[in-house]
Amino acid sequence: TFRWQGFKLEEYLIGQPIGKGCSAAVYEATILLSSNYQSSEDSKPLEGKTPDTEWDHGSDIQAAEAKPIQTNQQRAAFPLAIKMMWNISAGSSSEAILSTMRQELVPASGSALSGEYGTVACHRRPVFGKKKLKPHPNIIQVIRAFTSSVPLLPGAYVDYPDVLPLSLNPSGIGHSRTLFLVMKNYPCTLRQYLNEKSSDAHLSTLMILQLLEGVDHLVRHGIAHRDLKSDNILVELDSAGCPWLVITDFGCCLADENIGLRLPFTSWYVDRGGNGCLMAPEVVTAVPGPGVLIDYSKADAWAVGAIAYEILGLCNPFYGQGRSSLESRSYQEDQLPALPDTVNFDVKQVVKMLLQRDPNKRLSARVAANVLHLSLWGENILVPKSLNLDKMIGWLLHQSAATLLMNGLVDRSRVETKMKTCFLANLEYEDLWEAAFLLLSWRNHSV
């Protein structure tokens, strides 16, 4: 029944705030059914809802550290999340709003904008010149997108009074309508997860691998996220307790059909993306001029290398304070902090190669992911000092058969099964052999 539902804000039961950023607020939600009234005493239908003036996130980082991981019971009551964009400059027409905020629609499903009460008619281009992104297990999917009048939601007067429209706040500067995005409700962000739990070496490797698979999927579609950070990565646990990571918040992405991953940088007014701390060296040091292009093909992979420090239990070296802080504009590779001895040697090498200043020397997300796949599951083909083609083919056939059986007989939500599926689906001969030779050269050099 959801196929024809969810294209109007009035169809949702809105719960409490989940978080907020620099351009939107996110709330827990569910489709409005009669049973919802009985299952949630703390929530009311959207109409007539009063603001909760005691609820305050504070800064983004404080909110991430303070907010506990959602319980399964909370998520069962509110399986969805609604992101309400703050509309200051887009005007109040649906087409103007969608055009201005079109980056947010890049991970939208094919049906997200096609409902009876949706804002885009079938004959229009659904993402306004932006590339369409196919679904991927490590990328958020927007399942509904529509424009609607801005309502008064819990915490609005405390968290974002200035962006409310005049009808709700006499001193507000927001427009009366804005864009709403409906997604799955995840328990927490990666930052919150890492603040509350410590992962062993195997789980940490799987988390880095998932980010690389997600970034590789974006690169294959000619898209650069440009704002990767632990606050923009969501987490839930699979049936075995393994973290499942999903990249979200595409508001700063580069996804233009005409230019791909090479952005013309003709003046300082050109938007290079968000989060200056995790901006790759080739992006942050670019100087505008005629014919200058910024190549983003390995920029997100660099950001994964920086986030890997957080996953492996250390502070992000590009978020530090004082003398310990590094800047992507000027750091040298030998200044990077040493990773703990407990971290696998192959993982250390991958992180080191992802953080190479020169993108020509930096690993692509695909090759880096292949290295970790081989390190995790291909040890038997790496034992000899020279690679054997027949042995590699046999290993791939074995992996394919095992993955198909696991996907059919065991819980499909298992992270390891999904990662193996991604690896096999994106398999290319040259990338695989490059990864295998890299692993052998690293190990032989270390002996």
Automatic annotation (TrEMBL):
This is Serine/threonine-protein kinase PINK1, mitochondrial. One of its GO terms (molecular function) is protein serine/threonine kinase activity. Signal peptide: none annotated. It is found in: Cytoplasm, Cytosol; Mitochondrion inner membrane; Mitochondrion outer membrane. CDD domains: STKc_PINK1. The gene is PINK1. It comes from Chelonoidis abingdonii. PROSITE patterns: PROTEIN_KINASE_DOM, PROTEIN_KINASE_ST. Keywords: ATP-binding, Autophagy, Cytoplasm, Kinase, Magnesium, Membrane, Metal-binding, Mitochondrion, Mitochondrion inner membrane, Mitochondrion outer membrane, Nucleotide-binding, Phosphoprotein, Serine/threonine-protein kinase, Transferase, Transit peptide, Transmembrane, Transmembrane helix. SUPFAM superfamilies: Protein kinase-like (PK-like). Pfam families: Pkinase.
